[in-house]
């Protein structure tokens, strides 16, 4: 018998045998339905147009549903037009009206087709769930249209009259927008983002706005997300890092128009200090043109160099504060011979490509100049006081984690750090060495401490520094490499010294037994589970495959970011998990002027159709059913008094 006090609380929501029994019936029915479709994306990197298109198109699944429903009835061209109408109804309707195609006949046919698609996509949900997702102003109309009995002549007439009334009252456009939104909403039941929303692409802030509006979404933090989270928490090394990357990719819109970061102090400082320096090595990559905040490339190069030098200084200071990071060899400003113009890296001397360092004191290379200190203080205030940035970062904390176990799948961005022999790498926290799942859990605590605890809380300063370590430390599960070679990329011509070596995990995970060991470490049954991973782009053009470890591992970073597409040959993946199979949607590079539906291929069929009862949600529902049954028993025994419904 459950605690009586708990059952009395439950009775406030279900005050009678009738109310509790009705909910038992409802929950039992839900458990008997097919599971909803889960979508997994990774490494969005600010590519908001491509991501929003994939989200609206459900990575090609809506197009597949149109083909299944109307493939033998309407031509291919009309199928594409119907798909684009569902993805972008406002835009499509405006074009149709302009072209004179928005006729009464078109409206009638289109409403009918949209209702059929909605009925097909919503068929695996309860009527109640579909109704809850309907826009309030059209809920009654849509509900009636979705449940017409075509065998009943009177009902067919009623159906036709509803459509006629929609057209006659002039609300067709609003109705089409509403039912298109419902179709998109029903297609994706759960959305999983396997890290790296930020950096490289133009507008990560727009992606965050889109995610915050989605009904069921979770995020597994990537290294670029962690860097922005650290910046929002006030870590100046992380602030320098996100500014350096944004400026290097010409992403001024996300900083100034998106988050309201005031870059004028940085631009004035850079223009003054590097007035005579062309900063050629720091010219930004122009992958996207800024719409609101165009910056002269010459000034951008000076800003890039200024923030990079400040970053190298404050990173060196963090390393000196934390010998436990074992990163002394990364304090390369102290390894430069400023008289001879060479630097010693890994015991070997290399000539420096640039020796114009007006803010560096050769006798104390890590010391910030007075102007640099004041500038970083101003930039820190700008990050801390950006209302939108703080709102987005809070969302990452409330809806995110370092990893997630969900419906038999283990989700994380980077890796589980391993040694070459397959053992888990450990980090010492206050004398306790932790590896594997225990390490991931402890790192999660540090990440939350850095942002959520008030200043002055014991351990907060350590956690704040640790956010930077997670960006580039050898034992970081979101970095997964031996060293971050930022200095070498800027200042050394020799390509061999720039190479960053992946953690042994990335070779070991090719083996099924290693993937199974990791799954067991996180409490999952290997025979029914998968690892879903991002971070390292899959180079399809070089013969790589996203399916690894004997089918136990999916790596779904295929290069949504334009910066990677020349290396991968594609534009990323969506992993789609419905009740019948796992499928990979292979993205094409996004082009708003051409049809770019992903190619969808089934990679694993389920042995039996997966029902809600087989999922994590189903297990929660079964617990609720058990509670409700005990409440009904308590009512019948008179231990709790029924009240009027």
Task: Describe the protein in words.
This protein has 645 residues and is an alpha/beta fold. The protein contains 26 helices and 17 strands. A 7-stranded mixed sheet has the order 7-3-2-1-15-16-17. The protein has a 5-stranded mixed sheet with strand order 8-9-12-14-13. Strand 8 and strand 9 form a beta hairpin. Helix 13 crosses helix 14 and helix 13 packs antiparallel against helix 21.
Topology:
Layout: H1 4-13, H2 17-31, E1 38-41, H3 48-57, H4 61-70, H5 76-87, H6 89-98, H7 104-122, H8 127-133, H9 139-146, H10 153-168, H11 172-187, E2 190-193, H12 204-213, E3 217-220, H13 223-233, H14 236-248, H15 252-258, H16 264-273, H17 297-321, E4 336-337, E5 342-345, E6 348-351, H18 370-384, H19 387-399, E7 400-401, E8 403-406, E9 409-412, E10 426-429, E11 432-435, H20 436-452, H21 460-472, H22 486-491, H23 505-508, H24 512-521, E12 530-533, E13 547-548, E14 553-555, H25 562-568, E15 573-577, E16 581-586, E17 599-605, H26 616-636
Parallel strand pairs: 1-2, 2-3, 3-7, 9-12, 12-14
Antiparallel strand pairs: 1-15, 4-5, 5-6, 8-9, 10-11, 13-14, 15-16, 16-17
Helix pairs in contact: 1-26, 2-26, 4-5, 5-6, 7-11, 12-19, 13-14, 13-21, 14-17, 16-17, 20-21
What are the defining features of this structure?
645 residues, single chain, 26 helices, alpha/beta, 17 strands, 7-stranded mixed sheet, 5-stranded mixed sheet
């Amino acid at each position: 018998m459950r605690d009586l006090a708990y059952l009395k609380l439950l009775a406030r929501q279900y005050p009678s045998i009738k109310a509790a029994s009705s909910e038992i019936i409802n929950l039992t029915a839900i458990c008997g339905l097919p599971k909803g479709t889960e979508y997994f994306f990774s490494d969005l990197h600010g590519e908001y147009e491509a991501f929003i298109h994939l989200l609206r198109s459900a990575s090609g699944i809506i197009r597949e549903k149109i083909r299944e429903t109307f493939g033998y009835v309407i031509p291919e061209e009309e199928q594409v037009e119907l798909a684009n109408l569902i993805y972008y109804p406002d835009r499509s309707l405006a074009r149709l009206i302009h072209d004179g195609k928005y006729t009464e006949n078109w409206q009638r046919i289109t409403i009918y087709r949209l209702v059929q698609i909605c009925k097909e996509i919503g068929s695996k949900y309860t009527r109640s769930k579909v109704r809850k997702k309907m826009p309030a102003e059209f809920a009654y109309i849509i509900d009636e249209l979705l449940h017409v009995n075509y065998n009943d002549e009177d009902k067919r007439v009623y159906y036709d009259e509803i459509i006629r009334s929609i057209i006659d009252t002039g609300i067709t456009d609003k109705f089409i927008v509403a039912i298109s939104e419902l179709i998109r909403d029903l297609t994706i039941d759960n959305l999983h983002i396997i890290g790296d929303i930020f950096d490289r692409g133009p507008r990560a802030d727009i992606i965050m706005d889109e995610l915050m509006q989605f009904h069921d979404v979770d995020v597994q933090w990537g290294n670029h997300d962690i860097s922005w989270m650290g910046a929002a928490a006030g870590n100046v090394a992380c602030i320098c890092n996100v500014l350096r990357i944004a400026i290097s990719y010409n992403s001024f819109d996300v900083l100034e128009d998106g988050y309201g970061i005031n870059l004028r102090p940085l631009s004035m400082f850079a223009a003054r200090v590097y007035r005579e320096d062309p900063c050629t090595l720091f010219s930004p990559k122009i992958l996207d043109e800024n719409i609101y905040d165009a910056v002269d490339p010459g000034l951008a190069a000076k800003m890039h160099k200024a923030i990079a030098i400040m970053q190298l200084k404050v990173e060196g200071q963090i390393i000196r504060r934390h010998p436990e990071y074992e990163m002394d060899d990364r304090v390369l400003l102290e390894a430069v011979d400023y008289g001879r113009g060479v630097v010693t890296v890994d015991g070997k001397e290399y000539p420096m490509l640039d020796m114009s360092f007006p803010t560096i004191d050769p006798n104390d290379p890590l010391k910030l100049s007075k102007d640099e200190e004041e500038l970083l203080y101003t930039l820190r205030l700008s990050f801390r006081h950006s209302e939108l940035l703080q709102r987005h970062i809070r969302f990452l904390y409330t809806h995110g984690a370092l990893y997630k176990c969900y419906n038999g799948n283990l989700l994380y961005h980077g890796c589980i750090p391993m040694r070459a022999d397959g053992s888990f790498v450990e980090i010492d926290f206050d004398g306790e060495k932790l590896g594997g799942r225990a390490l991931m859990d402890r790192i999660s605590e540090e990440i939350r401490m850095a942002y959520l605890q008030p200043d002055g809380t014991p351990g907060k300063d350590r956690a704040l520094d640790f956010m930077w370590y997670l960006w580039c430390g050898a034992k970081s599960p979101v970095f997964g490499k031996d060293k971050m070679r930022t200095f070498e990329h800027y200042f050394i011509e020799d390509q061999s010294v720039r190479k960053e070596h992946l953690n042994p995990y990335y070779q070991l995970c090719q083996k099924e037994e290693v993937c199974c060991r990791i799954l067991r470490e996180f409490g999952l049954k290997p025979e029914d589970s998968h690892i879903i991973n991002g971070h390292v782009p899959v180079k399809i053009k070089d013969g790589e495959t996203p399916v690894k470890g004997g089918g136990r591992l999916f790596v779904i970073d295929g290069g949504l970011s334009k910066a990677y597409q020349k290396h991968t040959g594609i534009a990323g993946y969506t992993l789609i998990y419905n009740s019948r199979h796992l499928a990979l949607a292979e993205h094409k590079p996004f082009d708003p002027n051409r049809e770019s539906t992903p190619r969808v291929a089934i990679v694993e069929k389920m042995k039996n159709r997966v029902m809600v009862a087989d999922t994590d949600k189903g297990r929660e529902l079964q617990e609720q059913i058990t509670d409700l049954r005990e409440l009904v028993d308590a009512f019948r025994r008179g231990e709790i008094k029924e009240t009027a419904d």
